[in-house]
Amino acid sequence: MVIRRETFEDHATVDAVTSAAFGAADDGQEPPETHLLRSLRRDAGWIPSLSMVAVRDERVVGHVVCTRGWVGELEALGLGPVSVLPSHQRQGVGHALVHAVIGAADAVGEPLIALLGDPRFYRRFGFVPASSLGIAAPDPEWGVHFQVRTLTDCPAAVTGAFRYAAPFASL
User: What are the structural domains of the chain?
Assistant: First the structure.
């Protein structure tokens, strides 16, 4: 498996992977995550170098993206969505994608990554409940599911409310 940056030519395939990973809504419409991904690509918060695909046997089987976020005035990253084709789930694809995007974000000097997800999964990557560091979730009901991973260039004391790129508000 190879992890590489998403290219323009990958967009339709990545959208299909995202739709397959999250499943169609009851009304047959594409899942909100696919719409979110398309909106993020058009947003000022899009960071092309942090949109990555997993390729196995010359086929895109997974995708991860980090987009611009903020803790107060500090630029940070919001991770997600993370998508893996159902036929390739539980085979290490998501794990490899998350490791790759964390490494890439750290390499370019980003201070931290925030996400909404399962603590049991993301704990292995060094994510902790955001509230334990004094970072407030966009929605207080998210509780321990809103997590952060500090990176090498993170200031010692980062506190405040986290906000995602604008398209997340439409979810």
Answer: 2-170 (3.40.630.30)
